[in-house]
Backbone:
């Protein structure tokens, strides 16, 4: 067995997502299992280089996990010929410039989304990567979740017949920060720092709908800031200039309609923090992060509307749980494995910077739709 070290510059690991999902549950988890076995006698051994602005925080993480390499100098890390991959999970406003530098340095890039704050920047990154000849990927973690993988299994089996509609609910209450600390960083609520739920979540909805049902062809959205004043990490009040809730309607190629509500100002009354209900001519399903339940047309009850009598049916009990039938690994780790195989062996990989640009496009058009109060077509994105 040959062990090949892959050095990965990881920018943004002091943040919640970069640390927990990408460093601990993906890269360090791969090291704990002995590396990534490619099946050809080669094992890829990921060696992270922790990169960021706060050296003390980086060193604390490195010491906690027994890691060696820490830097606050992006240019120096990108100039190191031993660094193979640049990964970015910084704040959105800093991402595009850093990715441009990494591509120019000839590094393969893997990045959180959105890849840029606007479509022009996102397409520019895709073109730069194509022209430089590097391999590139964008995190699209939702489609690797157990619940959505089970939903995809139903789609591929033709369970739904003709898909009619998709209804999605995402969100939870993010505390304002005065009486209780907020669960999300304050930059999320400042438009000038790349914040806003549309820019954060519409890229997710683009690839979820695209992967499962088809290309989004139009969008009509209403974005709003329900809570205009919040308190930051130091207890200081600030004006929330970014949207904290968005209500979207998306047309899908083939005729299905998706309605998705995204909100950081909603209290959860559902089984999981995100749920999608899919209704088709032959059956329906409800999928969340981990679970998926279905109801076939042959097993569909016949409810009758009668407001004069209390309901005697337990509607949730009328749905069948879709079994796991396999072991589901962490979704972030699963996509990291695919990207590392792509970098090493050139295996097919479709979740690239162009796919990321589609997500940025949908967010940009969603915000424009909200501002103009009208439905907008979503043109196909080409590099």
Residues:
């Amino acid at each position: 067995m040959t062990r090949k070290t892959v050095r990965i510059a990881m920018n943004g690991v002091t943040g919640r997502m970069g640390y927990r999902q990408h460093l601990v549950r993906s890269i360090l988890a791969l090291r704990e299992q002995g590396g990534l076995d490619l099946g050809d006698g080669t094992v890829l051994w990921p060696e992270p280089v922790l990169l960021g602005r706060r050296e003390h925080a980086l060193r604390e993480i490195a010491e906690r996990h027994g890691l060696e390499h820490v830097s606050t100098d992006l240019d120096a890390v990108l100039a190191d010929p031993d660094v193979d991959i640049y990964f970015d999970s910084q704040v959105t406003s800093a991402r595009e410039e850093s990715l441009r530098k990494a591509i120019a340095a000839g590094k393969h890039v893997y990045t959180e989304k959105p890849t840029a704050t606007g479509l022009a920047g996102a397409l520019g990154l895709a073109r730069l990567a194509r022209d430089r000849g590097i391999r590139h990927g964008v995190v699209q973690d939702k489609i690797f979740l157990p619940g959505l993988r089970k939903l995809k299994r139903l789609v591929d089996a033709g369970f739904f017949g003709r898909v009619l509609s998709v209804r999605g609910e995402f969100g939870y209450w993010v505390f304002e920060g005065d009486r209780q600390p907020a669960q999300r960083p304050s930059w999320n609520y400042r438009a000038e720092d790349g914040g806003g739920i549309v820019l954060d979540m519409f890229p997710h909805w683009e690839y979820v709908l695209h992967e499962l049902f088809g290309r989004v062809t139009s969008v009509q959205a209403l974005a709003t800031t329900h809570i205009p004043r919040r308190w930051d990490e130091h207890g200081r009040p600030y004006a929330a200039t970014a949207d904290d809730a968005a209500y979207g309607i998306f047309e899908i190629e083939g005729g299905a309609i998706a309605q998705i509500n995204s909100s950081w100002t909603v209290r959860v009354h559902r089984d999981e923090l995100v749920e999608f209900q899919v209704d088709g001519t032959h059956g329906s399903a409800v999928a969340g992060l981990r679970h998926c339940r279905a109801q076939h047309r042959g097993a569909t009850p016949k409810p009758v509307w009668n407001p004069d009598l209390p309901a005697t049916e337990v509607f949730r009990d009328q749905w069948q749980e879709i079994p796991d039938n396999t072991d589901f690994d962490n979704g972030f780790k699963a996509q990291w494995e695919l990207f590392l195989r792509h970098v090493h062996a050139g295996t097919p990989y479709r979740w690239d910077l162009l796919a990321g640009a589609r997500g940025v496009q949908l967010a940009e058009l969603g915000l424009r739709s909200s501002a103009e109060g009208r439905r907008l077509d979503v043109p196909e994105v080409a590099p």
About this structure: The longest helix spans residues 353-372. The chain has nine helices and 18 strands.
